[in-house]
Amino acid sequence: MTIKAAILGFGTVGQGVYQILQTKRDHLTKLAGAPIELCGILVENLSKERELPYSVFVTDQYEQILAQQPDVIFEAIVGEEPGFSYLTKAIDQHIHVITANKVMFANHGNHLLTQAGERVGIGYEATTAAGTPILGTITRLLQVNSITKVEAILNGTSNYILSSIQSEGRSFQDALEEAQKRGFAEADPTNDIKGYDAFYKLMILSQLIYRKQPSWETVLCEGIDQITADQFINAQQQGSKIRHIASIEVVNGKLNASVKPQVLPPSHGLYPVDGVDNAIHLIGDLVGPLTLRGAGAGQLPTASAMVEDFLYILQSYPVKQHI
Ligand code: NDP
Ligand code: HSE
Questions:
Q1: Pocket lined around ligand 1, Cβ cut-off 6 Å
Q2: Residue closest to 220 by CA, chosen among 241, 242, 205, 198
Q3: What's the pTM?
Q4: 18, 65, 77: which to mutate for ligand 1, most atoms within 8 A of CB?
Q5: Which of the following is catalytic: 201, 212, 241, 260?
Q6: How far apart are CA 71 and CA 319, in angstroms?
Q7: I need a surface site. Which of 50, 62, 108, 189 has the fewest CB within 10 A?
Q8: Assigned CATH class of 138-296
Q9: Is 33 helix (H, G, I), strand (E, B) or coil?
């Protein structure tokens, strides 16, 4: 008896999921109650060299992945499409899905969750703050609370660049290249440095917390790419730090959201958050102020969120086991 899993995308995140399925094989088998069988990996470019045993089935045809009849699909490809169409087809076939793709999920998450209903599990912890388990905390541990305000650092690359410039005196370009080398930044880092990546994550949080999103055109979205040298110097002279802050709150029954760089004094709760870390500070009417901080990008933290979602789904939904 096995549980069949497939991975879509074999870049930074897909390789992280593969690595955890290998290194935690025995532990996962015990927790899941059956061994996990990797039944296929989908990539775009079949001619790229991969560090994979010959026994692993790699294809560029999604239909061939579906033909393996996976129980669960991990999606770690880039952009709205083909991710959305692939997951729609998977849910149609009662396959549980776990995604790291925030561009796709901010746009289509609500549709996928509605489509899945009670029958199919959808894990999307990795879309928002990577390894920092904010979505699970809200979903499972803050159900009774009303969350009135969220203020967060949601892009690991931006925080890494800002920290490197301000603490180590590195140049923007140098820090960005390092973030790319370390797998934090997207292959095309436009969304990271222009604020769109944090915007998508804020919309996912909004949908989860408030069951709706503000109209996207009403949300101010600025990245870190327009911060001037003078602004960095002024912040340093005041003993402050510039951080990229995404915030959302309910004002007179309306959602007000923004994504932009802000100067934080040492007394601000998000001031100590350095490097690739993300942090989410929220206020619940019962719990009061709460801050969760952890890795906001990178291979293993992101894959960790996906594999934890995987296990939660296996434990929450009946999965047919293959003999
Ligand atoms: P990479 O660019 O490293 O890898 C992308 C993978 O997707 C590659 O293997 C690529 O194939 C494959 N791919 C791209 N387009 C297609 C397609 N049309 N069909 C099939 N496969 C395709 O990205 P990451 O691993 O960094 O990110 C993956 C997803 O996870 C993204 O949505 C990203 O936003 C999200 N994410 C990333 C985090 C990170 O820290 N890196 C953290 C949290 C979320 P090929 O190898 O052939 O080029
Ligand atoms: N590029 C993203 C970031 C990856 O730097 O935050 C995590 O979603």
A1: 9-14, 42-45, 48, 76-78, 82, 100-102, 126, 130, 183-184, 186-187, 297-298, 302
A2: 198
A3: 0.97
A4: 77
A5: 201
A6: 7
A7: 50
A8: alpha beta
A9: coil
Strand partners, 244: 261
Question: Which among 132, 197, 202, 300 is the best mutation to test ligand 2's pocket, defined by most ligand atoms within 8 Å of the CB?
Answer: 197
> What does the pLDDT average to over 264-280?
98
Q: Which residue has the tokens 């790291």?
A: 100
Topology (CATH) of 3-130+300-316: Rossmann fold (3.40.50)
Instruction: State the pLDDT confidence band at 55, using cuts at 50, 70 and 90.
Output: very high
Q: At a CB cut-off of 8 Å and minimum separation 6, what does 248 contact?
A: 149, 150, 202, 205, 206, 209, 214, 255, 256, 257
- Give SS3 for 130: coil
> Which residue from 281, 274, 272, 36 is spatially nearest to 156, judged by alpha carbons?
274
How many residues in the chain?
A: 323
Closest ligand to Cα 74: 1
Give the number of whichever ligand sits closest to the CA of residue 199: 2
Instruction: Tell me where in the chain the CATH 3.40.50.720 domain(s) lie.
Output: 3-130+300-316
Q: Is the dihedral of CA 78, 136, 248, 290 positive or negative?
A: negative
**Residue 181 falls in the annotated catalytic set:** no
Dihedral, 254, 260, 266, 269 alpha carbons, nearest 10: 40
The number of the ligand nearest the C-alpha atom of 183 reads 1
CA-nearest residue for atom 14, ligand 1, is 77
Contacts 24+ apart (CB under 8 A), 218-221: 218/257, 219/257, 219/258, 219/259, 220/258, 220/259, 220/260, 221/194, 221/195, 221/196, 221/258, 221/259, 221/260
Q: Which amino acid is at 71?
A: D
Portions of the chain given CATH number 3.30.360.10 = 138-296
For residue 201, which atom of ligand 2 is closest to its CA?
8
Proportion of the chain above pLDDT 70, given as a percent: 99
Judged against a pLDDT cut of 90, whether residue 222 lies above it is answered with yes
C-alpha 277 – ligand 2 centre gap (Å): 10
